[in-house]
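Customer escalation, tier 2.

The customer says the design service returned an amino acid string that "doesn't look like it belongs to this structure." They asked us to rerun it and document both sides in this ticket. The original structure tokens are below, unchanged.
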């Protein structure tokens, strides 16, 4: 009986967590099932086939060519290769692996935001993140954005726990940071963010002594986690792909300066990222964000009015530094299309450190009456820096891809959650005051609970309705059919030369090198290239009149050419 009571108490205390698990598992399973039963990997999913090719190599299946897959982030291909070694050589393997990370991400958001908000706001935040169109469409489809951001969320959760509650969590936080990085190299920005959080706490000398021992142990665990990946790179003589990737982005402004870079692309499409089919639902949350921002600005002004009452002559200088720092952060974003993103990021991080120092000094100078200890300052500034640093990074890149915003979704979720919290706190205080005046007894914060639950129900409806959208790709079906035809048409297909303008896709389906042929090649040149390389088959999504090749089969958008006898 006692065990039963304890179990019921445990369940009651963790109802929200259980609900989040049920929600995220249901969405993940449905997404994996839909993606596995429908051919979805069409035009926008070529990268998935690169990860599959790398997974084949890691599992011991030799695939020639495609050396550039060695530059890919290795974690997801490595996990996928484990399933391949057990005989599950299927595209569904990568769907399952990437789908599991969705569960970790939604759960991580709930746990992370519980460190800052009440249970209802944290629950709303997890559902908001997990039901956004952008996250849903890239869940369980083989791409690495959701796995990377999920690991980053868990990294920050355990890192903050390490600083604020129990330093033993460093042992988990740093290995997770390493895994986040190898899940997607752009997650490397989390390392300066971790350093920033440490600096935000102030009292540098005291904190170094306080956190050195456990922090160093955590770093050692992180290094141990990185060793298998480093050995894989070394043994296979693979260059460090993230260095070349960073250099490419860093020099893109200089080499393509004549092209127009829309730095406001991601900001302008936020409504689409929240909920794409119906922007009206997105606008509800944008209105919440705007109102909450206005309230925050009002509270900041009120805060500085309290400062003005203080006679301390140094306060004005700290006030000036904070205003200047905020202006410089905005400036860092606006100049991303003029100079390398590296300088913008350095400027941004240094400015943020100065801002935190000034704010901490400002609080310490206030007298007891006006002093306001902002306990969540480090957490809030970290989340804002998370959002802004990635906004600068990806806005500097000339190529804008919607899924890149997934790395900013936790930051956007925080901004919406903070805005909603500000609105509900103010609403609760005013409504409770009016109710008390007329002597009506009502549960405190009831309006917070009701409004939060209404928004959660709305998000649940939109998330499940979004899964009903038909994601099937006719091109993906045609390519799969074309591959099956070649297998049945030519038993010797493994030993002949095959070219394709979507080479990686057919390399996976045929599990042999299918040489990639660039698009827009003139017909005469294309014929000569194929002939000179003893090509037997050419697979294309364009129709050609090739002199030495016959069009032998057509599957919708896919044309198969075979060399003439």
């Amino acid at each position: 009986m006692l065990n039963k009571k304890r179990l019921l108490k445990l369940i009651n205390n963790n109802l929200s967590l259980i609900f989040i698990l049920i929600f995220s598992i249901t969405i993940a399973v449905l997404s994996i099932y839909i993606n596995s039963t429908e051919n979805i990997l069409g035009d926008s999913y070529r990268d998935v086939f690169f990860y599959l090719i790398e997974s084949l190599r890691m599992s011991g299946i030799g695939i020639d060519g495609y050396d550039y897959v060695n530059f890919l982030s290795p974690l997801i291909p490595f996990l996928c290769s484990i399933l391949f070694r057990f005989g599950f050589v299927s595209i569904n393997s990568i769907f399952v692996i990437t789908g599991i990370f969705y569960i970790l991400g939604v759960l991580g958001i709930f746990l992370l935001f519980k460190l800052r908000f009440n249970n209802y706001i944290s629950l709303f935040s997890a559902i908001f993140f997990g039901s956004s169109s952008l996250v849903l469409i890239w869940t369980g489809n083989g791409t690495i954005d959701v796995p990377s951001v999920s690991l980053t969320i868990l990294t920050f959760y355990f890192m903050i726990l390490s600083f604020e509650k129990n330093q033993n969590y460093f042992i988990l936080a740093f290995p997770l940071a390493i895994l986040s990085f190898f899940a997607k190299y752009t997650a490397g920005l989390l390392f300066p963010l971790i350093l920033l959080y440490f600096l935000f706490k102030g009292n540098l000398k005291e904190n170094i002594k306080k956190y050195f021992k456990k922090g160093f142990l955590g770093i050692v665990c992180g290094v141990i986690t990185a060793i298998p990946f480093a050995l894989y790179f070394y043994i296979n003589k693979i260059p460090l792909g993230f260095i070349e990737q960073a250099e490419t982005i860093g020099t893109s402004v200089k080499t393509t300066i004549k092209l127009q870079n829309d730095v406001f692309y991601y900001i302008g499409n936020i409504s689409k990222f929240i909920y794409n089919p119906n922007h009206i639902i997105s606008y509800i949350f944008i209105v919440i964000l705007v109102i909450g921002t206005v309230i925050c600005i009002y509270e900041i002004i009120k805060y500085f009015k309290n400062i003005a009452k203080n006679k301390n002559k140094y306060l004005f200088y700290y006030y000036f530094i904070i205003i200047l720092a905020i202006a410089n952060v905005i400036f860092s974003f606006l100049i991303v299309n003029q100079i390398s993103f590296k300088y913008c990021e350095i400027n941004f991080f240094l400015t943020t450190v100065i801002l935190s120092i000034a704010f901490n000094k400002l609080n310490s100078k206030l007298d007891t009456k006006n002093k306001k200890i902002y306990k969540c300052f480090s957490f809030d500034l970290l989340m804002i820096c998370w959002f802004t640093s990635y906004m600068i990074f990806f806005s500097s890149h000339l190529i804008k891809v919607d899924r890149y915003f997934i790395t900013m979704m936790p930051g956007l979720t925080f901004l919406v959650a903070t805005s909603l919290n500000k609105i509900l706190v103010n609403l609760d205080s005013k409504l409770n005051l009016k109710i008390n005046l007329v002597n009506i007894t009502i549960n405190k914060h009831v309006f917070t609970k009701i409004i939060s639950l209404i928004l959660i129900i709305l998000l649940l409806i939109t998330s499940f309705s979004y899964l009903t959208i038909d994601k099937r790709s006719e091109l993906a079906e045609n390519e799969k059919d074309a591959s099956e035809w070649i297998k049945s048409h030519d038993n010797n297909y493994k030993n002949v030369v095959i070219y394709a303008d979507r080479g990686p896709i057919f390399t996976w389906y045929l599990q042999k090198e299918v040489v990639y042929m660039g698009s827009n090649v003139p017909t005469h040149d294309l014929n000569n290239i194929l002939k000179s390389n003893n090509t037997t088959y050419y697979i294309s999504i364009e129709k050609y009149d090739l002199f030495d090749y016959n069009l032998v089969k057509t599957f919708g958008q896919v044309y198969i050419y075979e060399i003439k006898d």
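Tier 2 assessment: The sequence is consistent with the input. The chain is about 70% helix and 5% strand. Residues 267-466 form one domain. Sent an explanation to the customer and offered a walkthrough call.
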